[in-house]
Write a structure and sequence with these properties.
Largest sheet: 8 strands, antiparallel, barrel
Number of strands: 15
Oligomer: single chain
Shape: elongated
Strand content: over 45%
Number of helices: 4
Length: about 250
């Protein structure tokens, strides 16, 4: 098949998923309440500014300690580029492929200090959906669902990875966001996407693309992609490192 395939992996244990779903609302509700309860400390805790790079892009971040080991964080990850995937991951000859990332991810959340570690939760907002486009060379063929089609009947096939505009995240972090001077931090976690899915569109012969057999095959291809992704479709990884500078404390 000449369409997007995520690396197969076994589903996360159901007990682990259930635990995430139980603790996330508690964390998200508790952190803002604890932060709001100490406005004076928020003013005294200083501000930390810096930058990060990772799976959420490259961009700035601001952190404000609010006392009792709690830090409010906000940042932007700028992507806005595409990758040439031609010839990679088993893509057949006579076609090119490009992977398009959102222009930006925005995050807003809070962390709790756990000794040398941090536990964090918050919300991620994306500017648009990631997508993957295959363009067929003249006369090239492609399998879609149970059918085989050739260019120019099918000229391009685009797979979009979509979820609602705002999604929650959980993370573990290393390095503090409080204190004066230069510091290093790192985060690892995941954005939780319970409603994520694939949608596919094609260009080419309008009459063929509008026919019911082709639409059925496109839906079958979407289901196959969803099945191949398994439980991993519901998570966007967070892996990032950064530097920050404390301006007050």
């Amino acid at each position: 098949m000449g369409v997007l395939r995520l690396a197969p992996g076994s589903a996360l244990p159901s007990r682990f998923e259930a635990t995430l779903k139980r603790i996330y609302p508690i964390i998200c509700c508790a952190l803002p309440l604890l932060a709001a309860a100490q406005p004076a400390r928020a003013l005294q805790g200083g501000i930390s500014v810096g930058g990060r790079v990772g799976t959420l892009g490259i961009g700035p971040e601001v952190a404000v300690p609010v006392g009792s080991g709690i830090t409010l964080r906000g940042g932007a990850g700028l992507l806005g580029f595409d990758l040439d995937m031609t010839g990679r991951f088993g893509l057949a000859d006579q076609r090119t492929a490009r992977l398009f990332f959102p222009k930006a991810f925005y995050t807003l959340g809070a962390d709790i200090s756990l000794g040398g570690l941090r536990a964090g939760a918050g919300l991620l907002v994306k500017s648009e959906d990631p997508s993957y486009r295959i363009t067929l060379d003249p006369g090239a063929g492609i399998d879609i669902g149970a059918g085989t089609y050739t260019e120019p009947d099918v000229a391009t096939l685009t797979t979009r990875f979509s979820w609602t505009g705002t999604a929650p995240y959980l993370l573990l972090g290393f390095g503090s966001h409080s204190g004066l001077g230069l510091g290093f931090f790192a985060d690892i976690g995941a954005v939780i996407l319970p409603d994520a899915g694939f949608s596919m569109t094609a260009t080419g012969n309008d009459a063929l693309l509008a026919s019911q057999p082709f639409r059925d095959n496109l839906e079958l291809e979407e289901r196959d992609a969803r099945d191949d992704a398994g439980a991993w479709i519901n998570y966007w990884p967070i892996v990032s490192i950064g530097l920050r500078f404390g301006l007050g404390g």
